Amino acid sequence: MTRSSSEPARISAVVVVYDTAPPRLERCLVALRASVGVEVEIIVVDNASPRPVHAPLADRLLERRTNGGFAAGANDGVRAASAHFIAVVNDDAVVAPDALRRCIDALMASGRNVLAAAPKVLFADVEPATLDSCGIVLRPSGEAFSAGAGQPDLGQFDTDRTVLGPCLSTAVFRAEAFHRVGMFDERYFLYYEDVDWALRSFLGGHDTVFVPDALVRHEHAASTRSLGERRRFRLVQRNLLLCATANLSWLSVAHVWAARTVAAAKAAVKGPDRTSLASALGAAVVRVPSALHARRRRRRAAVRHDHAAFAFAHGLTPFVDTASYRPTESAAALAAATARLSRRGTHG
Fold it and tell me: First-to-last CA distance in the chain?
């Protein structure tokens, strides 16, 4: 697909909502509508909210009868999209006017093997500028987090070319990505659907480009904070086990399950919440047959090794408090940012 420099690219922006505060949704949609250099089709997917959703700035409002989770809502929006590029944008994210265009330009400048673009996501209300996500990474333990999370933005990630995958706070895809890799996995309900898609894509030989000059402000976890820390923890722990089982080699799967089982045993002895991890393990066990069914197809498509996926997480630590969803204002975050910037200068 080609376009002239004067012709704006078309992009469908999918925003999934569930009982979203109207001012937050309006901020998100106003920013999308203000995008420059692109023609934006806005698709809002209401995931069976208890109250009516009003989205006058949207081109389409899709109303689901049941709340099937984030992935189910996003998939409905993707299927309804009409453009060659698709953005998935959280309702608590605000894109800069040129962010979508920059992501599209990066994709068009890349080979057809690059299926997604990850913008630089900053915390919405933290100064100086603090990173929320420079793409997602995955440890051998199965734990996933966003690269740079909680670090001050010193440009330390700006020369990164590719990442494991985009965080779905805001991500831009070629529409064909969902034919080549597949849709978001609806087994998870919430959390790890982006990690799962990223693993399938990367292990299958596809890449995600990082676009440091495409900026997004994100009110971290504003749309999911009402779940409460314990339920969020159980979902994350359950889903990381299912994600590993469905996508990684048997050696990695064994390592992840062993690590979670040991952690559950320790929590049973001295953990402050003795039931959450055990509950997550039990819920994962029940869903293992479904993960194994998906695994057969995915492992046949894999052309890269697990260690290549884990390499993106090397040396990285998140500096975000999981209870308050705020950066931990620590000297360690600054030191990590400075050290990475120094290494960049040494190798650059």
Answer: 34
Alpha-carbon distance of 41 to 206, in angstroms, equals: 26
> What is the token pair recorded at 204?
């299958």
Whole-angstrom distance, CA of residue 238 vs CA of residue 241? 6
Encode 261-281: b = buried (16+ Cβ within 10 Å), e = exposed. Answer: eeebeebeeeeeeeebbbbbb
Distance CA 135, CA 209 (A): 9
138 near 195, Cβ under 8 Å?
Answer: yes
Q: Where are the beta strands (DSSP E) in the chain?
A: 9-17, 38-46, 60-63, 85-89, 93-95, 114-123, 131-133, 136-138, 144-146, 162-163, 170-174, 207-218, 320-321, 326-327
226 secondary structure, DSSP code: G
pLDDT in tens, 136-189: 999 999 999 999 999 999 999 999 999 999 999 999 999 999 999 999 999 999
Tell me the CA distances in angstroms from 234 to 4, 54, 211, one per residue in order. 49, 32, 32
Q: Which residues of 322-342 are buried (b: 16+ CB within 10 A; e: fewer)?
A: eeebbbeeeeebeebbeebbe
Q: Which of 221, 246, 256 is nearest to 70 (CA)?
A: 221
Rounded to an integer, what distance in angstroms lies between the CA atom of residue 139 and that of residue 223?
26
Residue-range domains of the chain with CATH? 10-226 (3.90.550.10), 228-304 (no CATH)
pLDDT by residue (tens digit) across 174-192?
999 999 999 999 999 999 9
According to DSSP, the residues that pair with 63 across neighbouring strands are: 46
